[in-house]
Write a structure and sequence with these properties.
Blueprint: E1 2-7, E2 10-14, E3 22-28, E4 31-35, H1 41-54, E5 59-63, H2 69-72, E6 82-86, H3 87-107, E7 121-123, E8 127-131, E9 134-140, E10 149-153, E11 158-162, H4 176-187, E12 193-196, E13 202-203, H5 204-230, H6 235-241, H7 258-277
Parallel strand pairs: 4-5, 5-6, 6-7, 11-12
Antiparallel strand pairs: 1-2, 2-3, 3-4, 8-9, 9-10, 10-11, 12-13
Helix pairs in contact: 4-5, 5-7, 6-7
The chain binds zinc ion (ZN).
The site of zinc ion has 7 residues, from helix 2.
């Protein structure tokens, strides 16, 4: 795990084991707020040990940005904290969490001791958390998934974006157009930095360009899949022929994992387009 201090009171923890997934922490005079909890207990414990030592007031709240395993499996280790999420996020975890965890355990021995802990404080759309002197605004950022939220920290102007912002936008479980709208809205927020769900923290000077590139990528994959469909190219062929590079993406981001994400994105667009024409 890699630990980075973004401002005086804000930390980001990045997994060195799984897809550079991130967790964040905001330390206040009345305790700490953690955003997402990493998938593997060893790294979550490392983060927990550091944060418990950092503030005598302990960890008060954990916020889940969305229901995906790599962001919520560490929840159960934060015994002292309330867990906050959107209502939708809790609902998806309640319905499919146990089954997915059982499957994940069968594949990944490191997860053997994990138990599913659902959020116990939920909200329908937005909420504001006041703790110590800090104000955190929780808001919907759908598109990667439908239940996604972000956490905007006033003062520092940092957005913890969950997987709404990633080195490559990822829509396999979500909605392409919805994610584009979300990315445009984030662009208007005048942020100092963005903590992405995976990968490096984005700094002020690179935010606009990065978000524009993501929005353009989502247009490009749509246009290219549509053109291939018009030329009656098979699903298998189009996934191989439309390369990430030809859509403006860097194939080395997230240790190369982006190539898989790109293929899944193409399949998702293919599904959407073929469903429409039926
Ligand atoms: Zn993720």
């Amino acid at each position: 795990m890699r630990k980075e201090r973004v401002t005086d009171d804000v930390y980001v923890f990045t997994s060195t084991v799984y897809a550079q997934v991130t967790a964040g922490a905001i330390v206040t005079s009345e305790g700490t707020v953690v955003i997402d909890t990493l998938p593997f207990p060893r790294e979550t414990r490392e983060m927990l040990d550091f944060l418990r030592a950092e503030s005598k007031r302990g960890i008060r709240y954990v916020i889940n940005t969305h229901h995906h395993a790599d962001h919520v499996y560490g929840n159960y280790l934060f015994e002292e904290a309330d867990i906050i999420s959107s209502e939708r996020c809790r609902e998806v975890m309640r319905k499919s969490g146990e089954k997915n965890l059982a499957e994940a355990k069968a594949q990944t021995p490191e997860l053997a001791e994990v138990s599913l802990r659902l959020p116990n404080l939920t909200f329908p759309d937005k909420m504001t958390l006041h703790l110590g002197e800090r104000v955190m605004r929780l808001m919907p950022l759908p598109g990667h998934t439908l239940d996604g939220i972000g956490v905007y920290l006033e003062g520092d102007k940092i957005l913890f974006a969950g997987d709404a912002v990633m080195p490559l936008p990822y829509i396999f479980w979500g909605d392409r157009v919805m994610l584009q709208e979300t990315l445009r809205a984030i662009k208007e927020m005048n942020l100092e930095s963005i903590v992405q769900g995976h990968g490096e923290v984005l700094l002020k000077g690179e935010i606009g360009e990065t978000l524009d590139a993501s929005i353009a990528y989502l247009d490009t994959i749509y246009d290219k899949v549509k053109a291939k469909l018009a030329a009656r190219t098979s699903k298998e062929r189009l996934v191989n022929e439309i390369t990430l590079e030809s859509c403006g993406g860097s194939p080395i981001a997230l240790d190369g994992l982006v190539k898989q994400l790109h293929r899944s994105n193409l399949l998702r667009v293919y599904q959407t387009l073929t469903a429409k024409s039926r």
